[in-house]
Amino acid sequence: MSQVLIEPVTDSMLTEFATFLHTHLEQSRSPKEWESELRVNWQPDRPNYGFVLRDNNKVVGSIGTFYKDRIINGRTEKICNITSWCVLDSYKQHSMRLAMAVINQPGYSFTDFSPTKVVGATLRFLKFTPLDESQAVILNLPWRPFSSSNVIHQADKIKQLLEGDALQIYEDHATFPWLNHVLVGKPGSWCHVIYKKRVFKGLPSVDIIYLSSKVLFNQYISQFSTHLFFKGFISTLVECRFIMCRPFLSAVRSGFNQKVYLSDTLNEDDIDYLYSEVMALNI
User: Fold this and answer.
1) 204-207 CB contacts, 8 Å cutoff, 24+ apart
2) How many Cβ atoms from other residues are within 10 Å of residue 82's Cβ?
């Protein structure tokens, strides 16, 4: 009689893990692409790359993890981001065991930013809290055509203008080709914006996935919108929880699968997408 075991994913198992995800979760991403993206490591003492279900030496389910120790509200927070949860249909009864293998790791706050409806429901059963999923859609127009000095998009200039933790965040995320970095503001007071290129309503758009300052973004949003307009982007998508108020000429859309988190020390305002699957995976 077979016994379904749970094992942590080690470095030597990543190729097998990536092949399983390619075959059963997302075939448009090659095994090598899966492995390269899952191998991203921001934490020197990373405990694992996730966990797998194994039956008779065959992987039948998996859940991936990214780890990062971060300073939030003046204290060190250990964050574990869940990704790529996939279990073969005939082993679905073991799905909860995989989740428990992750969240039973002591001392961590946990996030999942791309749950399916079923996964999201499972995690909410495990006391995960949903994040506000509403999104503002902003029309980009040439509001400030002569204010280019308030928007910096050249990599060398960004590195010169940032310092300390802000520079480290940029350098930790600058190597992903699907991420775009912009600074908006003025010397000594910059908001770091990270976005991905999207298509919305059949037209080129950007999806903001990180803002270092709500206040500065609100102050310089017209300059940012102008910059995007002249780069050919018709609209900007940004989660409402990231901004202070809904900008002029914008609308709100909702109804997405809710992102979730589990933490004894963090609240919604503390949760962003740095050092997570949102950054490391081209999704």
Assistant:
1) 204/232, 204/233, 204/234, 205/233, 205/234, 205/235, 205/236, 205/237, 206/180, 206/233, 206/235, 206/236, 206/237, 207/237, 207/238
2) 28
| 32-36, 43-47, 58-62, 140-144: least confidently modelled range | 140-144
- Which residues touch 9 (CB under 8 Å, ≥6 apart)? 17, 48, 49, 50, 51, 52, 62, 64
Of 212, 233, 133, which is closest to residue 170 (Cα–Cα)? Answer: 212
Residue 156 token pair: 């060398």
The rounded distance, in Å, linking the Cα atoms of 65 and 69 is: 13
User: Could you tell me which of 41, 85, 82 has the C-alpha nearest to residue 62?
Assistant: 85
Instruction: Please state whether the predicted TM-score (pTM) of the whole model is above 0.90.
Output: yes
CB 259 within 8 A of CB 131: yes
User: Confidence class of residue 148 from pLDDT cuts 50, 70 and 90?
Assistant: low
CA quadruple 282, 39, 23, 54: dihedral positive or negative?
A: negative
Q: What residues contact 218, with CB distance under 8 A and at least 6 apart?
A: 243, 244, 245
Output the CA–CA distances (angstroms, integers) from residue 192 to 98, 187, 202, 222, 232, in the order listed: 36, 13, 27, 15, 21
Helix or strand run (H / E) with residue 70: strand 58-72
Mean pLDDT for 152-162 is 96
Per-residue model confidence as pLDDT tens digits over 226-254: 999 999 999 999 999 999 888 877 899 98
